[in-house]
Amino acid sequence: MSRPHKPSLIQLFLREVTLVAKDHSLLLTLLIAPLLYAFFYGSIYINKEEEQVKLAVVDDDQSRLSRLLQQQINNSQLVELIHFSDLETAKEQMYSGNCQGYFYIPRGTQSNLLTLKQSNVVLAVNAARFLPSSDLLMSVQQICLTVGAGIRLQYFEKSEGLSRTMAMQNVMPITLDYRPMFNERSSYGAFLLPALLALILQQTLLIGLSESVAGERQQGSIKEWFKAGISTAIWGKGLFYLVVFGAYGFFFLNVNFRLLNLPMRGSGFQLGVLLLFLLFTLIPMAQFIGSLFRSQLLCLQVMAFSTYPIFLITGYTWPFESLPVPIQWVSMLLPTTPFIKIYTAIVQSGADLLAYAAALLHLLLLWLLYSTACYIRFRKLARQSKVHLD
């Protein structure tokens, strides 16, 4: 009596192609969502930096210094000054949301500064919106320090008769040489977009593959799928996702990065190797998660809901060390955590893959964990479905 035919790895790959082509939900998730999300979210942050943030200004000093301050601030690409005659109106404009803050120059500012007395100007910003307030503070503070130092430099040269070098030493005994590395403009878009593209790649794979496995349970096709054996079943289905999302990864790094003008300082080959490690870890993880659901729709809803929490706890938007300890434990179980650490270092600072050997080992251990969990879970499902395994 001949043994029943066992599907090969390639046959299971082709079977998955057919399943995806027939399932509109999978087709949308796998073939449309990654590109749509990548270009849509990328277009939101394509300018990377804010421009022309409105700042109300009230000048009670009406001096050459106050006009110089306003001119320098207004020349900044970041700030757009709106002039008001009294402080109450400027405050009202900020409270109404028409401006992101106000800049007040009190009477006597120039005369105090010229006599080396303390001179205060007021910058009030709407900190409820963190990004505009932070950008306004950085820009206005730098201009005020520069203009103030220039006035004091003139005082020491003219009144004290000091040379330019001696006067500069009195004005600025300690000079800060501020050099932001890698993200030179300190722009929000350049910080966020590389990780966002990686998250889109990860989540669409997790959602699509887990949904496919849940669909196998829902439609009762587990027996057909498991005929080839557990390992072949896992990687026969996973091969399709490895090919598709490997292509997406190549496309993002070569097309989206260029269109969005994102830096790529590291080795493309090393980044490709890292991406393969991530995909190999995500494939058994997604199949294990999908095997926990009997409903394809419920699986889709749960996995879609997980996207934002996963992004928040990986240590990218908030330092990993500052997360609550239980959240750190959960984060350590996510492949995103070690991947993002290595990925951003390669992309933004040109780091070497082997320089992050501990994070790479972490990713490999997660691959082993999820591969083992997936294999054990599938053997249990095979026994429940009465599938004969050699």
TrEMBL record:
Keywords (A to Z) from UniProt: Cell membrane, Membrane, Transmembrane, Transmembrane helix
**Intracellular or extracellular location(s):** Cell membrane
Ranges that cross the membrane: 26-46, 188-209, 239-257, 269-289, 295-317, 353-376
Example GO molecular function: ABC-type transporter activity
Q: Does the keyword Transmembrane apply?
A: yes
Topology relative to the membrane: Multi-pass membrane protein
Where it mainly occurs, coarsely classed, is membrane
The question of whether Ribonucleoprotein is a record keyword is answered with no
**Where is each ABC-2 type transporter transmembrane domain found?**
25-371
List the record's Gene Ontology CC terms alphabetically.
plasma membrane
Q: Which Gene3D superfamilies match?
A: abc type-2 transporter like domain
Q: What's this protein's name?
A: ABC-2 type transporter
Q: Which organism is it from?
A: Pedobacter heparinus (strain ATCC 13125 / DSM 2366 / CIP 104194 / JCM 7457 / NBRC 12017 / NCIMB 9290 / NRRL B-14731 / HIM 762-3)
Organism taxonomic ancestry:
Bacteria, Pseudomonadati, Bacteroidota, Sphingobacteriia, Sphingobacteriales
